[in-house]
Amino acid sequence: MPDRVLIANRGEIAVRVARTLAARGIESVAVFSPEDAGAPHARACDHAVALPADPARSPYLDVQRLVAVAVEQGCDAVHPGYGFLAERADAAQAFVDAGVTWIGPPPAAIDLLGDKIRSKETAAAAGVPVVPGLEGADVDERAVVAFADEAGLPLLLKATAGGGGKGMRRVDDRDAIPSAVDAARREAQAAFGRGELLVERLVKPARHVEVQVAVDGHGGAWAIGERECSLQRRHQKVLEEAPAACLTDAERTAFHDAAKQLAVAAGYRNLGTVEFLLDVSGAANEDGTRPFYFLEMNARLQVEHPVTELVHGLDLVALQLRIADGEPLALGEDDPAARRAGTAERDPGPPAAVGHAIEARITAERIAAGPDGPRFLPAVGPVLDYTEPTGPGVRVDSGIERGTVVTTAFDPMLMKVIAHGRDRPQALARLDRALAGLVLLGVETNAGFLRRLLHRDEVVADASTTTLLEELLAEPDAGAGLAGPPAEDRERALAALAVDRHRRAAGSAGPGAFATPDAWRIGAAGRVLLELQDPDDDRVDVLVGVGPGGLEVTVGDRTAPAADPGARTAVDGPWTWVHDAGGTWSFRDVPEVAGGPGAVAGGLLAPLPGVVLAVRAAVGDAVTAGQSLVVVESMKMELDVAAPHDGTVTALDVAVGDHVARGQVLAAVEEQA
């Protein structure tokens, strides 16, 4: 085993890796950027090294600097986590060349599997089914049109390099092929430095099923169960679970065998995940199993690895350490004598799955109303109050704490909440309770959205597909139900806010009859009007008064339900945050003076903090409603700020590269008479 390991990552995965190292008596070294000074992952390690600021790129991507840190700190191994350097063959090779063990697959395997064309060819040669399609640098719109005429629509365009949904376009209309090819190629070139595309027939409806594999250096290969990850938005997983209850025993065996075949054929070693699409259209093979197709192999530890750990009773990071140290899989983790002696019986395989586990990714996101359904926008701010959920079967992998400042500098995922139960219904119930018990004030998250998703009939019935969530969000009623809570829950939260305001006012008023904060006047108890706005800037009027039965709260023309006595509140400038049994909320007082510096009639405001990527108009231009004027990037997400109506651009206050705050005036359009 290594003596000292550099963790070349940040956030929750760095904390999680440090936990395993500490449990095994291995020293850990953290690195941190200027924004992460004092962060939980830096304190979770035995040593922490500051990385210098780099305006051109993230310090966590500076391979030469990280290799130097490993050497200077006397590290004999490095764990890359996921993201950043985890799937960069050049990074793995640089550490190996410096004499530092890479806790992951060999550089050659990373390089092979990072190329979708070569990995697909390897899978096909190994007898693993692949989706019919076209690939290569010569794939242009004419070739795609010809393939569409032969294979039919819809099609999926994918960048041959990288992942995460970048360079990916679904095509449903033959006439849209030229523009889709151009857009996918541009995005791939910008994201990965390569514009080659792979074109496949879109498998729909389908389920996303992936297999966790482990391969040692002695010919041993395990399939450590599988995970179901069909609930996705913009090709990003939202909920993951293990095992995949949708599979028959025969299908499960076929998935596991295919994953091991590919891993061995690719010269793989250590842990990895082979992703497949299961065709649930009703098609069937001769043996009655449903067709499935290779999607890609992720050459790293997966974000959703905790569900596999919980159902199989394994520490997958510890397993990575063992394989990197040259141990065979067949030597049990609980048999140190056998490991020292180098003796092993026939490989018994991994522990069988027990129960069911589900993971929810908690991200810093604001769910805003949009003309085409809910929009998920990056959220930022200081963590004012934070309590992790507890309970039977509940696990939290987190990289934040009270006082953490969430910015747009990094990926929006803050933590993962995982629940394990004896079966899927119990795991669902435990996850719902855990999400209800998560208190995070100061930064908007998707926790409430995930709770509402868990209660959808399709999710309860385990009837998810890869397109289900996008379809629900696009449907007006379903989308509204997922994006926002019931009105009664909102009113109860406003009642809690009113109680908090009343308590604060009473505490500051001092003793005496005239100190009662109820707008008292002769003849009757008065009422105080709270003029508030929600995060979408929609106005909410709340009347608060003290009546015979105590505090009385009216929201609009409705009497609010009693506040949750367990509600927690926090104040950050003009914003008041509330967490109660119905979720987490934030409201601010309506600004007394509208406008201010830069405010203009018809002003378009930045919906999120970020950097201006493009300015697509100039003062004096005639524009139409919906026309994109400014593009803002935040947390790897691009958002168009469009003209609200036909008219003329009368002001343009930003340029490409400018950093903007949420609510900042970007431009103004005078409506056409």
TrEMBL record:
MF term (GO), any: ligase activity
CDD domains noted in UniProt: biotinyl_domain (cd06850)
UniProt-listed Pfam families: Biotin_carb_C (PF02785), Biotin_carb_N (PF00289), Biotin_lipoyl (PF00364), CPSase_L_D2 (PF02786)
Entries under InterPro entries matching the protein: ATP-grasp (IPR011761), BC-like_N (IPR005481), Biotin_carboxylase_complex (IPR050856), Biotin_carboxylation_dom (IPR011764), Biotin_COase_C (IPR005482), Biotin_lipoyl (IPR000089), CPAse_ATP-bd (IPR005479), PreATP-grasp_dom_sf (IPR016185)
Disordered, as annotated region: 330-353
Ranges of compositional bias, category Basic and acidic residues: 336-348
Residue span, Biotin carboxylation domain: 1-474
Domain Lipoyl-binding: 591-670
Residues of the ATP-grasp domain: 120-325
Keyword line: ATP-binding, Biotin, Ligase, Nucleotide-binding
Record keyword Protein biosynthesis present: no
Cofactor names: biotin
PANTHER family: BIOTIN CARBOXYLASE (PTHR18866:SF126), CARBOXYLASE:PYRUVATE/ACETYL-COA/PROPIONYL-COA CARBOXYLASE (PTHR18866)
Protein name (record): Unannotated protein
Native source organism of the sequence: freshwater metagenome
